[in-house]
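Q: Hi! First time doing this. I have a protein sequence and I read that you can turn it into a structure. Is that right? Here it is:
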Amino acid sequence: MTEEEFKTGQILLFDKPLEWTSFQLVNKVRWLIRKNFRIKKIKVGHAGTLDPLATGLLILCTGKSTKLIESLQGQEKEYTGTFTLGATTPSFDMETEVDETFPIDHLTSEGIHEATKAFLGDIQQRPPVFSALKKDGKRLYEYARSGEEVEIPTRTVNISEFEITKIELPKVHFRVVCSKGTYIRSLAFDFGSRLNSGAYLSSLRRTRIGDYKVENALTVDSFVNEYLSMEEET
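A: Yes, that's right. Below is the predicted 3D structure, encoded as structure tokens:
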């Protein structure tokens, strides 16, 4: 691919590696393009953050295609992953340690499947305090890490599909199709509350954004091999 094609604008699908931030992937791809064409600047942005502990589809836009980011962010998303029942964490995932445990002896397969129905359609959801959302000019995770309490308002999100694909207590595997702004970590916490067992998100993979699918996504290595003429440097 030529320098002009990147500047005119490309939509690139990436499979974000575990423990990378979305910005790390953006910065890596930007650096590779600049290095390859020996240029000082190239616009690169992503269409929807994935947490470091999540993997899967991250859409990157280059050049003039960065204008499409907002419309791409608004598209329906699909995720797969696992909830671990019987415990909660402050971050609603594995970023923080378990802070409370609950019995799971009362749980049944039927009850677990039935509980998904309460989350279909438009629902009110409270974002996690460990998130990058801002309140009064400060990111929520900054309040959380400093021990400050902050009131987080709920917001309306839509979940069109929510199914439990496998039960291996204390873990349950799921698939969710949802709107922009849905926090799967919050869904994990609320799902655990619904079951009176507690839950946190123990793995997450984004498999689709609109019509874009993760099976068509690039790794950093395949991006270098297929789109650039250079060999990746470490």
